[in-house]
Design a protein that fits this description.
about 180 residues, alpha+beta, Alpha-Beta Plaits, 5 strands
Length: about 180
């Protein structure tokens, strides 16, 4: 398939550079539609995403395609995402905590029918919407770390409890012997 190469207007070169930097900094992203959201609603979404150390960027579709093609990780995805880069698109650059960001986006799309998750990319692979929904059910990085910590803590707690019972039993035995001998 041949593609026509268009010259990029000088005013758009800065936007292209920003997209390339975002793709380099964050390999994981999700494409969304936001048509009909007002400024306040979009601002609320941006705030929720910022809390997850991620960002939302409304993109020019052609510039985003060019940025994908010029990305070392995403160049093969540009043609696969072509059908989804139609109409108003916002890209959520998810960083390393894709489950947490996915959960936020899915919850927001349930509350706000004008906002929809389209497709995503994780570690250079395309994610369909249903895969993003599945990822949203995974625990966040913080939740996983807490589960691991609880897993490490449980045996220590059980050992301490067992030792406490042994020491208590020994103390009761010594007391009983002392009372018996008088």
């Amino acid at each position: 398939m041949t593609t026509s190469v268009k010259k990029i207007a000088p005013r758009k070169i800065e936007g292209l550079a920003e997209l390339k930097n975002k793709l380099t900094a964050s390999e994981n992203f999700i494409l969304t539609t936001y048509s009909g959201l007002n400024v306040v609603e979009m601002g609320a979404l941006r705030s929720k995403i910022r809390e997850k150390n991620s960002s939302v960027k409304v993109v020019k579709n052609n510039l985003f395609k060019i940025a994908l093609r010029e990305s070392s990780v995403h160049k093969e995805l540009a043609d696969q995402l072509d059908a989804d880069l139609k109409g108003p698109v916002a890209v959520v650059f998810a960083g390393s905590d894709l489950p947490s960001v996915s959960k936020t986006l899915i919850e927001y799309s349930k509350k706000e029918s004008k906002f929809q998750v389209k497709i995503g990319c994780m570690d250079g692979k395309i994610l369909a919407k249903d895969e993003i929904v599945q990822i949203a059910t995974l625990p966040s990085r913080e939740e996983l770390l807490a589960q691991i910590a609880r897993g490490f803590n449980t045996p220590v707690t059980q050992i301490a409890s067992g030792m406490n019972q042994i020491i208590s039993g020994l103390a009761r035995a010594i007391k009983a012997v002392g009372e018996k001998n008088g």
